[in-house]
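Appendix B, Record 12. Input sequence as logged:
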Amino acid sequence: MKLVDKPVTNFLDELASNAPAPGGGSVAALSGALGAALVSMVCNLTLGKKAYADVQDEISDLLAESEALREQLTGLLEEDVKAYTGYSKAAKMPRGTEEEKAERQVVMQAALKVATDVPLSIAETAVKVMDLCMPAAEKGNKWAVSDAGVAVLMAEAALRSAALN
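Logged structural output:
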């Protein structure tokens, strides 16, 4: 079962366990996805309201963007676990002979590339979420401005966390 399909308490239990994954990268992706979801919430609280009739098209576009980013980050949460697992398996490959050492080195380099690409993708996607927060705050339902503020904080946490990975 995918991490994103599990109840939050199960995810938190796995995170708190002695298993190396999920870890910080998965939390970074989740933070970004939470930020995107909050932008979507602001949009959904704005759409169809008479007071915001003049921004409906913009808010609708913003909603589509935030939902696409949320989906990307949700996928990256899973990809982070796979990337770590791939690197961990490569590190455990035999290295008794020169051939084994050479093969292990090739596999480890490929796994390292994936393991660095995923956090970079999380960071890039988090920046895109951050870019949606100000328009959501400025044009969205005024009663949800604090949600747009929390969205930018979650996206910033995703960016900073991904940079640590």
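Residues 20-164 form a domain with the Four Helix Bundle (Hemerythrin (Met), subunit A) fold (CATH 1.20.120.680).
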